[in-house]
Specification:
The complex is a heterodimer of chains A (about 400) and B (about 70). By secondary structure, chain A is mainly beta. Chain A is about 0% helix and about 65% strand. Chain B has helices at about 1-15, 40-55. The chains are: A mainly beta (about 400), B mainly alpha (about 70).
């Protein structure tokens, strides 16, 4: 249940018209964080095939190998582990730092697009992902309706439902002050091996309404409103908080974090693309997000493509992201006492992030191309990451 | 929510004044790979979005499928 590159995300369904094309693409991703934190190696395969003019099938598979460490509170007297927890531990032994982990994952997805006699499109998809402590199954569908005879504008409605199962190690410190607040544990079965784990559900419903419009022969825009409802075990089983820290008695409790068992979010995304010249095109996007954990975020994204002759395509991009912190987040070791919800997971903090992106694709022939991209991601927290991708695509 | 709706309505209203009827034979540029919403490498775009999902606290807006845990 680590970084989970692409997971079901291998089948994001676009509201745009399908640019149908038969191809096979093999890609390899290498992701590395600073300070020997998370490292991911992820080879993947994607196949896209038209069947006549009415059907397009897209199949993908990805395998991740994740290793490294995440930052978390732990009781150093019992080792640098996410499960180095306890009540009444020595306060001087409470440390914040890297806790090691590793994981492997296999995932795949299938998407079928069907075109009606009026060329409206129905897209249905399914995804499956499995790793040692996390199972995910997802179904999704979207209907796109053309609004005009020239097919310059469309309205789409999509929905997906994700059924996730989280294997959580259970001990008397797993859920902090509110173990009983996890109300959806209807599976309640141990893993049968350690006898100390339980499977919890964590489901996600996503709805999206999109409007797409060609503005002229060189540009288009798309606007989408989305709604996301997460429910179930939303706590990160590898993150801890410090409660009842007392310097006088030199005692503290290091316990598993605890998050609400529901989250409702909504937002808006805008996308604009313009072919500035015959060989230069620009994409600009903005997204607003808000949820009932009091996290608001704004994202600005831009990409610029340059085609050099028939053989080379270059891309540079810049992304800026900012978010506010969750209402139950605090990074300090002397803040939490008996609060029901508590997290020190840095991803729930207030921070900014910027990504510098670059990519080049070289066409060896009309049918075969190779690509390489290099990217740098930096947060206003201490997280920095690089990710590289290389691969080849064969069109037939 | 009111702010989201107002932004959506304002955007559509402002851009609607720029719309011209593009005929099928005029869509060569719009059909280029560099104009696709997912870019020239859809798989790379999806990798990128999942990295953001794993390292940030918000998601959505790019489609109805996707997600996961991203705990570390």
């Amino acid at each position: 249940m680590q970084l989970k590159i692409s997971l079901a995300a291998a089948t994001i369904i676009s509201a745009m018209a399908v640019h149908a094309e038969d191809y096979v693409s093999v890609q390899y991703l290498q992701y590395n964080e600073n300070s020997n934190r998370t490292a991911v190696s992820a080879p993947s395969l994607i196949v896209n095939k038209d069947f006549g003019t009415d059907y397009t099938l897209n199949v993908n598979i990805v395998s991740d190998t994740v290793s490294g460490a995440s930052e978390a509170w732990y009781d150093s007297a019992s080792g640098a582990s996410a499960f180095s927890r306890g009540t009444g531990v020595n306060a001087s032994d409470v440390k914040y730092g890297n806790v090691a982990y590793s994981d492997e994952r296999i995932a795949g997805g299938v998407v079928l697009t069907t075109r009606m006699s009026n060329r409206d499109e129905l897209t249905i998809g399914g995804n499956y992902s499995r790793e040692h402590d996390f199972d995910s199954k997802e179904v999704s569908g979207e209907y796109m309706h053309w609004l005009d005879s020239s097919k310059n504008s469309s309205l789409s409605f999509g929905a997906s439902y994700q059924f996730n199962e989280v294997l959580v190690r259970i001990d008397d410190t797993t859920s902090g002050a509110s173990a009983t607040t996890v109300s959806n544990d209807d599976d309640d079965d141990d893993d049968g091996e350690s006898g100390a784990s339980e499977v919890y559900d964590a489901d996600a419903l996503t709805l999206q309404l999109s409007y797409f419009q060609n503005l002229n022969a060189q540009s288009y825009f798309k606007i989408a409103a989305f709604y996301i409802a997460d429910s179930g075990y939303l706590t990160n089983p590898y993150m801890n908080v410090v409660r009842n820290y007392n310097e006088v008695t030199n005692k503290a409790d290091v316990l598993g974090e605890n998050r609400p068992d529901s989250r409702v979010a909504y937002g808006l995304s805008l996308k604009y693309a313009n072919a500035l010249t015959d060989n230069i095109s620009a994409h600009i996007g903005y997204r607003y997000y808000s949820d009932d954990w009091e996290i608001d975020s704004h994202t600005l994204d831009s990409d610029l493509y340059y085609e050099l002759g028939d053989d080379w395509v270059f891309k540079v991009g810049l992304r800026y992201y900012t978010q506010s912190q969750a209402k139950f987040y605090n990074a300090s070791k002397d803040y939490f006492t008996d609060e029901v919800y508590a997290s020190s997971d840095q991803r729930l903090s207030s921070f900014d992030a910027i990504t510098y992106k670059s990519d080049v694709e070289y066409f060896i022939s009309d049918a075969l191309s190779v690509n390489f991209s290099a990217n740098y991601y930096e947060q206003s927290t201490d997280l920095k990451a690089t990710y590289f991708m290389t691969g080849a695509t064969y069109r037939f | 929510m009111k702010r989201v709706i107002l932004t959506a309505v304002a955007t559509v209203f402002l851009l609607s004044g720029c719309i011209s009827d593009v005929k099928p034979w005029e869509k060569e540029t719009l059909a280029k790979a560099t104009m696709k919403e997912s870019g020239t490498n859809p798989l790379a775009k999806k990798y990128e979005e999942h990295i953001y999902f794993s390292k940030e606290a918000s998601r959505g807006g790019s489609g109805v499928a996707g997600g996961g845990c991203g705990c570390n």
